[in-house]
Amino acid sequence: MTDLNIQIVVCGAHLSGMVLNPQLTERGGVLVKATESAAKYRFYALAGGPPFRPGMVRVVKDGVAIPVEVWSLPAAGFGDFVNNIPSPLGIGKVELADGSLVSGFVCEPFALDGAKDISDVGGWRNYIQSLG
Fold first, then answer.
1. What's the CA gap between 87 and 131, in Å, rounded?
2. Which CATH number fits the domain that encloses residue 94?
3. What is the pLDDT of residues 68-111, one digit of tens each?
4. CB atoms within 10 A of CB 56
5. Judging by beta carbons within 10 Å of its beta carbon (0-12, 13-18, 19+), is residue 92 exposed, middle or buried?
6. Predicted confidence band at 50 (pLDDT cuts at 50, 70, 90)?
7. 114 is in which domain, residue-wise?
């Protein structure tokens, strides 16, 4: 019997080298690829922290492509990982630039109250670097 692995799209603090990335690697996560979402999202720096977190929200118009990473997690690690995701974040289907749909981080729209739109900054790494 082979172990089941589940792919997950990350866009913020879980990216390679970022503060929450160990939550993936400690559960057996392996980076599959760095890519972009389809140009159907807006990207926000959510209020609160640390750790600071972004929210990616699918929109009907004025969407942009967001830099993301696709990780592969063993099913048991995926379940444990998802169980620890705090509101307003959750897991939903994220459309990638190639048109594929992969489970990944999404944000509930109510969290945009007090959030800063950073869609045009070029991703979470660029935003964090801009903070100094």
1. 24
2. 3.10.490.10
3. 999 999 999 999 999 999 999 999 999 999 999 999 999 999 99
4. 24
5. middle
6. confident
7. 5-130
